[in-house]
Amino acid sequence: MRKSKLLMIIGPLFLLGLFVMPMWNITLEAPQYPEPLGMDIWINKIADHNPNDLKNINLMNHYVGMKEIPEHIGEFDIFPVVVVVMMALGLLIAFIGNYRWYLGWFILVALLGSVGMYDFYIWEYDYGHNLDPKAAIKFLDEDGNPMAYQPPLIGSKTILNFTAHSYPMMGAYMLFIGMLLSLAAFIVGLKEENQNQATL
Questions:
Q1: From CA 56, how far away is CA 37, in angstroms rounded?
Q2: pLDDT of 167-191, one tens digit each?
Q3: 65 in helix, strand or coil?
Q4: Which of 22, 33, 162, 194 has the smallest number of Cβ neighbours within 10 A?
């Protein structure tokens, strides 16, 4: 079996990691909480990082007018299907396609991942900006407008006396590795073709 084909077989299988490990984590640190509060975002759910974290986050958010963090959103019904289809497509390409198709799979997964990140950003934006006007506590920014509480898409950000951290977790890294393997399969396939032509 050619090395390029083997890499392309292994690459899509890394997407299985999305079903057994969380993709993303958002953590809130504050002096009044000795242990940070966090939530892990999986491909099909939002879960506590530590016991009762979501309950405590929702309790804080209620006072400033933020929506409750749902355990389930519509995207969680779509994402698993997309991942399974892309994994099956990748394996199909590995067995019946040539190395040029490997690059196509990489580009398609990258585009779908970008759409997923944009959807995540939109969710964060709505979560941090769409506040209940009847909230018990209201904070204003320097311009006198209601303060927004949007966590960062990636990185760290200070929100009042909290520091919010947003970073990928192992599921996202598994996806990234699978994509890199498919790109490596394309590059190796290109070299293999050039070597074959050189021997003719």
A1: 8
A2: 999 999 999 999 999 999 999 999 9
A3: coil
A4: 194
Assign 153 to helix, strand or coil. Answer: coil
26's CB contacts (< 8 A; 6+ apart) are 38, 39, 41, 151, 164, 165, 166
Find out whether 55 and 115 touch, Cβ atoms under 8 Å.
no
Residue 66 token pair = 């933020």
Over residues 89-128, the pLDDT tens digits come to 999 999 997 889 999 999 999 999 999 999 999 998 988 8
User: 131: helix, coil or strand?
Assistant: coil
**CB distance 9 to 184 below 8 Å:** no
At residue 125, the 3 state secondary structure works out as helix
Query: Please, what's the b/e burial string for 94-117 (b: 16 or more CB within 10 A of its CB; e: otherwise)?
Result: beebebebbbebbeebeeeeeebe
**Does residue 38 contact residue 26 with C-beta atoms inside 8 Å?**
yes
